[in-house]
C-alpha cells in the first residue's frame, strides 16, 4: 500500500509542477461548510488591561508589532486574562465574525475528545489500535502495528508512513494506515503525521457511533457556546481529526481558556483535570530540526516557560501562558508549516516573562482610550454592523482609471496553465478541487461599482472590486463556498506600465490570491500569485517527501538541489504569467 500511495503522490506532484491542468486522483467531495446563519453569540466580557494587572501601553505595543512584523501576516488577535478580553484586533479585511480554518490546531481538540472518552472509562491510552478495527482485514499485517497503542497516536510516535499526502490520493484512509509499513517501532521516534490524529478520530467514531464533531457537541461545543463550527470529514465520513475544523476566532480562544482552567468552564468540569495535565506534559522529544518545542498529547509544549500551544499551519495559534493566566489567540496566513515563526517570538517577548496572580493596576483612561483607538484603526473607519455585532468597511468612490477599463474584455489560451484559477493553488491541492484555467476576463462599471468578470472553465465569477475598502462576495468552487474580500489598486510601476492589482482575500483560509493586470495595446499581460504560496508549498512538500527519497525521481530532485530545485520547477505554476488578447 505504501508503494502505491507513494506513486500516486508523485503523480499529483508531477501534475502540479507540469504547468498543465491538474486532475485529482480521487473523486471530489465537499471539504468545507457554508458560513452559519446569524445566531446569538456568547462573548467573553471585555475590560481594560489595567483591571487584570497589565498596561494598555503593553497591549498596544504588542498589537502594533504584530501588524508591523510583516512575516507574521496576522489576520486576528485576541488577548485574554482573567476570563476577559483585554486586547483584540481584526487586521483589515479579516473579521471576527467569519470563521477561520484551524488546520492542525484541530489536533488539540481531538486530544480533548480522547480525554473525554478516557474519563468516561471507554478508552485507555494503552489500548491497542487494531482492536478497534477488527472488522477491517488488511491485505498486509505488519508485526510492528500489533504493538501500536493509542498513546503512540497521541504523541506522534506511531512511526507509520501513511501521511497527509494520502488524503488527496486515497479514499480508505483507515485501511491505508493499517496496511502501512512503519518506519520505526511504535513509541521510539517522534514523526509529525496528521494521520495519527485522523486515526484517533476514527477510534472516537468506532466507540461512540458518532462523528467526532457530533460526539463533542453536548460535551464541549454547546456548553462553551460554540455554535459556528464545521469539521471536514474523509470520503468515508470520519472527521479528519488532524485538520479541517472551522471556528470563529473567539471560539479558538475559548479552547485556550478551557485548557488554562484545566478543563473547567463556568463552574462545570467539562474535561477531566488530570487529562489536561497529562495532555500538556512532554510526552515525546521533538528533533531540533522540526521544532524547538516538545510534544504532549496532540499539543505543543514549551521547554522554557510554562506554556502550551494549540498550533495550526499558516499561523493558527492559541498560546496558553499557564503561570500568568494569559491566553493569546491568533489567526494568520503566513508561510510557516510548524509553529516556530515570528508571531511566536513577538508573543513570547511580550507575555513570556509575566508571572504571578492578577493584581489590578491603577486605571489609565488615556492609555486605554489609545488602545481602543488603535484597535479601531486596524479595522478601518466608516463601519456598518455585520453578522454578530462587529463592523466592516464600506467602499470608497471609484478611481478615475475605472472608466478606461470599463467595457474591455480579453481572451486567454490557458491550456498550459491550469493553475490560473481564482482559488489559491495551495487550497486547490488541499481541497482536491483543481482549477480549469481562466478563459476570459472582462471589466465593467455598473451601478457605481467596478467589476472584474472572470470566466474559469464553464463558470463565471463577478468580482466586485473595492478601492480603499474591500467589497465582499462568495465564490463557489466545486461544492464549496468561500467568503472573499476583494481589494483593487491602480498604479504605475517602475517601467511606466499601467497596472491594476486585484487581491482576493479568502477570509476563512488566511490565503490571498493576487491578479496583476498590465495592458499593452491589444494584449493584457496577467500575472497570478498567492500567499502563502511557493515558499510554503516547497517547504511542506519537501517535508512530506523525505520518506520516499529513494524513489528515482525524488532522488534526482534532491540531488539537483532539493527544495531549491522543487521551487524552480513549481514557481511558474504558483506565479504564472499569461497574455490575454483584446476582444472587439
Strand content: 15-25%
Q: What is the overall number of helices? A: 17
State the secondary-structure class: alpha+beta
Please give the order of strands in the largest beta sheet: 15-16-17-18-20-21-22-23-24
Spans of at least 5 consecutive residues with low confidence = 381-395
Task: Tell me the Rg in angstroms.
Answer: 24 Å
Number of strands: 24
What's the pLDDT, averaged over the residues? 88
Helix content: 25-40%
Structure overview:
There is one protein chain. By secondary structure, the protein is of the alpha+beta class. The protein has a nine-stranded mixed barrel. α2 (56-68) packs parallel to α12.
Layout of strands and helices, then pairs:
Elements: H1 2-17, H2 56-68, E1 74-81, E2 84-90, E3 100-101, H3 106-119, H4 150-154, H5 173-179, H6 194-208, H7 212-215, H8 217-221, E4 229-231, E5 245-247, H9 249-260, E6 264-265, E7 268-269, H10 273-279, E8 294-295, E9 300-301, E10 307-312, E11 316-321, E12 326-332, H11 342-351, H12 365-379, E13 383-385, E14 391-393, H13 402-405, E15 409-411, H14 425-431, E16 438-446, E17 449-456, E18 459-467, E19 471-477, E20 480-492, E21 498-506, E22 511-520, E23 523-531, H15 534-545, H16 552-559, H17 563-574, E24 577-582
Parallel strand pairs: 18-20
Antiparallel strand pairs: 1-2, 1-12, 3-5, 4-5, 6-7, 8-9, 9-10, 10-11, 11-12, 13-14, 15-16, 15-24, 16-17, 17-18, 19-20, 20-21, 21-22, 22-23, 23-24
Helix pairs in contact: 2-11, 2-12, 3-6, 15-17
Amino acid at each position: 500500500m505504501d508503494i502505491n500511495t507513494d506513486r500516486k503522490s508523485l503523480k499529483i506532484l508531477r501534475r502540479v509542477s507540469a504547468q498543465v491542468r491538474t486532475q485529482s486522483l480521487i473523486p471530489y467531495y465537499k471539504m468545507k461548510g457554508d458560513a452559519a446563519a446569524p445566531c446569538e453569540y456568547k462573548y467573553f466580557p471585555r475590560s481594560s488591561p489595567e483591571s487584570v494587572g497589565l498596561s494598555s501601553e503593553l497591549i498596544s505595543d504588542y498589537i502594533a508589532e504584530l501588524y508591523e512584523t510583516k512575516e507574521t501576516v496576522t489576520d486576528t488577535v485576541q488577548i485574554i486574562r482573567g476570563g476577559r478580553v483585554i486586547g483584540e484586533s481584526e487586521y483589515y479585511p479579516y473579521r471576527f465574525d467569519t470563521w477561520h480554518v484551524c488546520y492542525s490546531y484541530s489536533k488539540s481538540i481531538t486530544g480533548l475528545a480522547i480525554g473525554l472518552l478516557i474519563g468516561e472509562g471507554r478508552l485507555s491510552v494503552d489500548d491497542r489500535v487494531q482492536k478497534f478495527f477488527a472488522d477491517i482485514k488488511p491485505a498486509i499485517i505488519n508485526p510492528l502495528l500489533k504493538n501500536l497503542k493509542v498513546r503512540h497516536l497521541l504523541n506522534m510516535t506511531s512511526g507509520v508512513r501513511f501521511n497527509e499526502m494520502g488524503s488527496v490520493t486515497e479514499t480508505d484512509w483507515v485501511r491505508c494506515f493499517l496496511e502501512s509499513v512503519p518506519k520505526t517501532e511504535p513509541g521510539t521516534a517522534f514523526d509529525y503525521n496528521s494521520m495519527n490524529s485522523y486515526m484517533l478520530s476514527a477510534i472516537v467514531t468506532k466507540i461512540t457511533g458518532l462523528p467526532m464533531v457530533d460526539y463533542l457537541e453536548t460535551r464541549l461545543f454547546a456548553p462553551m457556546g460554540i455554535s459556528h463550527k464545521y469539521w471536514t470529514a474523509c470520503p468515508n465520513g470520519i472527521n479528519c481529526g488532524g485538520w479541517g475544523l472551522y471556528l470563529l476566532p473567539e471560539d479558538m480562544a475559548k479552547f485556550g481558556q478551557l485548557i488554562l482552567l484545566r478543563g473547567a468552564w463556568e463552574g462545570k468540569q467539562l474535561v477531566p483535570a488530570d487529562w489536561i495535565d497529562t495532555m500538556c506534559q512532554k510526552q515525546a522529544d521533538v528533533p531540533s530540526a522540526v521544532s524547538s518545542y516538545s510534544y504532549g498529547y496532540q499539543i505543543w509544549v514549551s521547554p522554557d516557560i510554562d506554556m502550551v500551544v494549540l498550533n495550526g499551519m499558516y499561523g493558527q495559534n492559541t498560546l496558553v501562558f499557564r503561570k500568568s493566566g494569559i491566553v493569546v489567540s491568533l489567526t494568520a496566513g503566513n508561510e510557516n508549516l510548524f509553529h516556530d515563526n515570528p508571531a511566536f517570538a513577538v508573543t513570547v517577548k511580550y507575555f513570556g516573562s509575566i508571572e504571578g496572580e492578577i493584581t489590578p493596576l491603577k486605571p489609565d483612561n488615556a492609555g486605554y482610550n489609545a488602545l481602543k483607538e488603535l484597535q479601531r484603526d486596524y479595522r478601518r473607519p466608516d463601519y456598518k454592523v455585520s453578522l454578530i455585532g462587529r463592523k466592516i468597511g464600506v467602499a470608497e468612490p471609484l478611481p478615475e482609471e475605472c472608466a478606461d477599463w470599463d467595457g474591455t474584455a480579453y481572451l486567454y489560451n490557458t491550456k498550459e496553465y491550469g493553475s490560473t484559477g481564482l482559488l489559491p493553488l495551495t487550497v486547490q491541492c488541499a481541497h482536491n478541487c483543481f482549477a480549469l484555467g481562466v478563459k476570459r476576463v472582462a471589466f465593467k462599471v455598473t451601478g457605481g461599482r467596478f467589476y472584474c468578470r472572470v470566466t474559469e472553465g464553464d463558470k463565471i465569477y463577478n468580482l466586485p472590486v473595492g478601492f480603499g475598502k474591500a467589497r465582499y462576495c462568495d465564490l463557489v468552487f466545486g461544492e464549496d463556498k468561500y467568503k472573499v474580500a476583494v481589494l483593487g489598486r491602480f498604479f504605475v510601476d517602475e517601467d511606466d506600465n499601467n497596472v491594476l492589482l486585484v487581491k482576493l482575500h479568502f477570509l476563512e483560509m488566511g490565503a490571498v490570491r493576487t491578479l496583476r493586470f498590465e495592458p499593452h495595446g491589444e494584449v493584457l499581460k496577467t500575472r497570478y500569485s498567492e500567499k502563502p504560496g511557493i515558499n510554503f508549498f516547497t517547504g511542506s512538500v519537501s517535508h512530506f517527501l523525505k520518506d520516499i527519497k529513494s524513489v528515482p525521481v525524488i532522488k534526482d530532485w534532491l540531488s539537483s538541489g532539493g527544495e531549491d530545485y522543487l521551487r524552480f520547477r513549481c514557481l511558474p505554476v504558483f506565479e504564472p504569467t499569461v497574455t490575454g488578447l483584446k476582444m472587439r
